[in-house]
Amino acid sequence: MFKIFTIAIREYWAMVATKAFLISIVMMPVLMFGGIFAMKTLTRVGGIQERKILVYDGTGRLFGRLSLEATSQNAVAEAMQEESHSNDGIRKPGGLEQNEKYVLEKVQADLLTNELRLEISEKIESGDYYAFVEIPADIITRKPDITQVQKTGDVARAIPAIEFRSQSSALATARQWFQIKITNAIRDIRLKDLEIDPLKVTQASQPVLVRGLGLFELDQEGNVKESREEDNVLTAIFMPFGVMMLMFMVIFLAAQPALESVLEEKSQKIAEVLLGSANPFQLMIGKLLGVVGGSLTVFSVYISGIVYFASSQNYEIPFQILPWFIVFQVLGVFFFAAMFMAVGASVNQLKEAQSMLLPIWMLMMSPMMVWFIIIRDPNGSIATGMSLFPPATPTALMLRMATGQTIPIWQPLVGLILMVISTLLVVHIASRIFRVGILWQGKTPSVRELVRWAFSNQ
Amino acid sequence: MENAIELSSVSKRFGKQIAVDDLNLQVPSGAIYGFIGPNGSGKTTTLRMILRIIQPDSGEVRVLGKSEGKTADDELGYLPEERGMYKRMKVRQLLIYFARLKGMRNCKSEVDRWLEKLGAAEWSNKKIEMLSKGMAQKIQFISAIVARPRLVILDEPFSGLDPVNMEVLRDAVFELRNYGTTIIFSTHDMDMAQQMCDTIFMIFRGKKVLDGTLDEIQSSFPANRVKVTLSDPEKEFPGIPEIKDLTRDRNDFEFEMIHPDRKQAILQRIASQVAIDRFEVIRPTLHEIFIRIAKPDIGNGKGQSVDAGQIQRRNYLEGGK
Prior knowledge:
Strand content of chain A: 5-15%
Mean pLDDT of chain B: 82
Largest sheet of chain A: 4 strands, mixed
Shape of chain B: globular
Strand order of the largest sheet of chain B: 5-6-7-3-8-9
Low-confidence stretches of chain A: 87-97
Largest interface: A-B, 24 and 26 residues
Structural class of chain A: alpha/beta
Largest sheet of chain B: 6 strands, mixed
Number of helices of chain B: 11
Oligomer: heterodimer
């Protein structure tokens, strides 16, 4: 036992006290979640963009209204910019168009010819203008082209359209702005033409909200308690996703160093010295305990970060799943680190390990491939199946539990039992491969040879 | 005295290859026992069985009184031929780790004592990757003996060392012996084996071919080489049919007698033709004995076999003791 702990302690420090470990503990969440926040931040970094847009208003009734809309849009954008410089960095929700100001200019021509269109296009290309909007004269009265729909089935093309031209129309935020503003403006004009008060229509068509809430439950004093509000879709998605990624990271960050450490012992011929002092099983268990310790360290670092962040944002953390998380984390690390170590013992270089690791990676990532299906239906057949398939059990079960939906209690229990059995089996087989492999200096063994190592009595 | 190691009819095969074949060996406690043998002769396999890294297919391996176990005895220290240390660990940290792996809980003072003794104290906080080859060798040596083992296996402990460091390590080995430590000393350096070992054991093709003191081994081989010094350096060596492999170094000549029992007749024939200052029958060195046993096999590369019976006859122990 003393030897196993000696090995475990060395392994723990070898894993934790490296620059690579510190870098990866910081980089993993940055890489995984950073992209989402980076996009929002980056779009604001450039400050407000002023877009000069030429408008040809064939109706003669829309330009004035659009100019007014642009003025108010510009005021909002400026106010937001001011605020983002002065506030504490937490931004109010809002669309991307808040970064754009629009300066609308009327095309001074009664009739639009192709020559004129070309001239305008050239101006856009040279950067004098950002875009050109052409509003057909009959846009207010034009009806959807039913025959077109019947002929082609293409509804989008049948709707009366205004043309927005720029160097990147499809992605232009301004196009979306026009879409909304012109639709509103035309609706109001049509209502006025019908002598209906647009204000009344707005009041009449005031939408109602369908709020997503949890179920009623009994609290500790036996009172009926309304459950927390499922505030928004983002939380509903991010919480399970974050829990799943955390499980993946704590397992991966432990399994990879386990492989590297075995590989070092093998290639640096340390294995023979070690085996002169401890047997392969002690060596393997000691190493596994070491990386489990390392993995729990990663977990405590992340969980403290998460708790701090969540409390500052008033998010509720599902603390009730933490004990399950830790149990499955430990089992998951044993399960995968043992496999990684068996691979490390079988090869001579990290390069050779890659191909052997591929199937193990697939097992590890399998719940991540269907995570969205699982959170949409946490008690569906895919979710249940994944939870009872041991390599996927830790990640899949945590993903489901984090959704807040009630999972039949037999499932985590059966998952746990299956996971314990398969972990013992994997550790047993891996230790047999490890025992032969660690002193093996020849070519990389084939799968058949690995099977022979695992089951022969040599 | 009790034997530190006893091997009784030990065999080990890997697939179709017999690595060790029915080996018997007794290493008495407190001895410096030399293990020699060409590459691939079963030496490392024998050592690994003593270390219990591998188990024999048949026979018994008794080490320090125990014949069972999945791990080498904690009182057994091992310096493998291929050195292995964690590059990123610090010297002292590594030595403490290896000592603890041998079950030695309070090892710090012993680690410091050895670092001091071998002149490595100033390196104790350096990482292994910073060490020179010689220094790394000394650290590896300390790692093998720091837990005060009763039996130490040293596989090529002096390879790559400069004469000064070699002297330091050799003294350390003798000091261990003075404390009663049994030392297995595996080497390809026959001079070193000859100088240091009380007893020498040679394994060849998985079988024991030599086992005894140097004197016993030498006397079991015919002394068939002769050194002759002529009085007159100008004289040529007389032609004699009963000798072969004549070599000359100024007025010193060396040759092999085809029939060693005819040395008197040979001496008389030379003396009758030229004046001689010296006529000496020299005993074969360990190096020569090694070559005589292993060369037919290694030399032509075809694996021409040495007659196993002949090896048995040469080995006085196999039939005798």
